[in-house]
Amino acid sequence: RPESRVWTVMLLLGTCLLYCARVTVPICAVALSTHFDWDKKQSGIVLSSFFWGYCLTQIIGGHISDQIGGEKVLLLSASAWGFLTVLTPLLTHVTSAHLVFMTSSRFLMGLLQGVYFPSLASLLSQKVRESERAFTYSTVGTGSQFGTLVIGGAGSLLLDWYGWESVFYFSGLLTLLWVYCTCKYLLSENELIIPIDYLMRGLSISKQTKVPWKQLFKKAPIWAVIIAQLSTASTFFTLLSWLPTFFKETFPESKGWVFNVVPWLVAIPTSLFSGFLSDHLINQGYKTITIRKFMQVIGSGVSSIFALCLGQTSSFCKAIVFASASVGLQTFNHSGISVNVQDLAPSCAGLLFGVGNTGGALLGVICVYLAGYLIETTGSWISVFNLVAAVNSIGLCAFLMFGEAQRVDTDSAYMDL
């Protein structure tokens, strides 16, 4: 148990730093656009390029994690994206093709970070009891809001004081420090070594595997959770990418540390509460799938209502309230579809989570770029929030109609600590 708590805290910090690195460009979007003379379409290309890379490593990252251990994959990827974040501002000084370079850099960042959440799903599905998964995942998942909060607050101040380059240095160096501490204090020397035959086994999907892939993908609950996951992932990416620009342009006198901090500060307790409430209700005897669907109604449905309200208001205070409610309630997804993958197939949760996140990243590319296109052509932000609500509604309907929580894989030999 003590080791479990330490790992939970470290994984929370890892998720935090993942988002610190991921949100550096959205936080600096206006400064980068001014510095490099980009318009909204060009900014949209840079912002959306992350998701092209993000979608390519989800499935293979999840499968390798199922085979060799999610913690190894997490640390390898974190080391790489930490170095890339530190090097990005340095390398902008040696090239004149800034749009091409930043687009390529974000694409590579997406490749490296794409393995994180499938690896996390694989690790938790093998180490955590079903009755504790929602709270554990929600706790670790708060790292996404905590990371956005940290980079929103500290990043906004660094941006004003020292320029956009300092935001990249801050995020990258903290990531490398986390990797060092995790390797030194939580893993033994033997655990850090990855035998080549283990790695090759992870890179190939053997025909002799115990998991019947064709049968799995014929089941409606699998597709229901995948569709719901890609919908919520893409809309979250859209809000994450464009909210800083929305506030900066709609309320130009507002302070960056306010709108970059408050919504994510609200999201931390809501995420923890959703996990606690979900596990409590399940332990009280309520059906698991009923609770998963209830959480998803709040995470996708109610949050979309507040997103629509955000597009209609002209008051900064109301906009902060609506943005906070929308972002905060989206964390209920952690206790809905995010753990439903582990309910359905704990033996291959990493791979299935990767499939859903791949779809979410692909749709994220479209939604993030489409949002920039809509803003540039219409001059209105209302269409962006309408897009978020429409995509969320599709995923929610699929999950409510076909979602289940009974196990559908065949491998019951997973570790229960």
Could you outline the blueprint of secondary structure elements for this entry?
Blueprint: H1 2-22, H2 24-27, H3 29-36, H4 40-54, H5 58-68, H6 70-91, H7 98-113, H8 116-127, H9 130-162, H10 164-185, H11 189-192, H12 196-203, H13 213-216, H14 220-250, H15 256-259, H16 262-283, H17 288-312, H18 316-330, H19 337-344, H20 349-378, H21 382-402
Helix pairs in contact: 1-9, 1-10, 4-7, 4-20, 5-6, 5-8, 5-12, 5-20, 6-7, 6-8, 6-10, 8-19, 8-20, 9-10, 9-16, 9-19, 14-18, 14-19, 14-20, 14-21, 16-17, 16-18, 17-18, 17-21, 20-21
Explain this structure to me?
Pfam families: MFS_1. One of its GO terms (biological process) is purine-containing compound transmembrane transport. Helices cover 81% and strands 0% of the residues. The chain has 417 residues and is mainly α. The chain has 2 domains: 1-206, Growth Hormone, Chain: A, CATH 1.20.1250; 209-416, Up-down Bundle (Growth Hormone, Chain: A), CATH 1.20.1250.20. Helix 4 (40-54) runs antiparallel to helix 20 (349-378), helix 5 packs antiparallel against helix 20 and helix 16 runs antiparallel to helix 17. The N and C termini lie close together (8 Å). The relative contact order is 0.17.
CATH topology of the largest domain: Growth Hormone, Chain: A
The poorly predicted ranges are 194-209, 411-417
Task: Work out the strand percent.
Answer: under 5%
Number of domains: 2
- Distance, first to last CA: 8 Å
Tally of strands: 0
Global shape:
globular
Q: CATH superfamily assignment of the largest domain?
A: MFS general substrate transporter like domains
Q: Round the Cα radius of gyration to an integer and report it.
A: 20 Å
* Structural class by secondary-structure content: mainly alpha
How would you characterize the largest beta sheet?
none
Q: Provide the CATH top-level class of the largest domain.
A: Mainly Alpha
Helix content: over 70%
* Oligomer designation: single chain
Number of DSSP helical runs: 21
CATH architecture annotation name of the largest domain: Up-down Bundle
User: What average pLDDT do the residues reach?
Assistant: 82
Element string (H = helix, E = strand): HHHHHHHHHHHHHHHHHHHHH
